[in-house]
Amino acid sequence: MEKQVVIEEYNEKWVFEYEQEERIIKDVLADKAIAIEHIGSTSVQTLGAKPIIDFMVGVSDLNEVEEFIEALAKIGYEHVYHKELPNRRFFRKGQWRAGTHHLHIYNYGSEEWKNNIIFRDYLRTYPDVLMQYNQLKKELAEKYRNDRAAYTKAKNPFITDVIQKAKLSEKDKLDSFR
User: Fold this and answer.
1) What is the pLDDT of residue 12?
2) Which homologous superfamily is 13-176 in?
3) Regions of the chain with pLDDT less than 50
4) Which end of the chain is more exposed for a tag (fewer CB within 10 A), N or C?
5) Its pTM surpasses 0.70
């Protein structure tokens, strides 16, 4: 059965859980992981979240991910194929639609990689936007309590808007130096 969408208040243990699991993932991926980042709502202090720790791993070649599907399975990560997201490899720890950890693997420095960091860092920098997003998440969790896919899809316009604003802001800063 699909787990209901429930947004919990920010929990400081999420950082500790991330750090513990990050060490395990680093051991498995060894030199294949260029960088590992804590992304998603659990990575932003004070932001409410579904209690799922999101990891983003940057690799030099997504085709190499096939080499460590089995090793990740041994530490509890199931590979979940998404044909609609060809630039990402996704692994879940825990039950379908009720996982505890999500592992997103991208080419390091790709647009997807950058966008995840841009969004996270923008929320960390702008408390007013963070509060707006927190409120939106609570409203959507209420509206789509039993439909996690619809909940996720409904957040996309806000996320896309924030990423665009952040990129424009960065471009304006760079232009002012010219």
Assistant:
1) 96
2) Beta Polymerase, domain 2 (3.30.460.10)
3) 1
4) C
5) yes
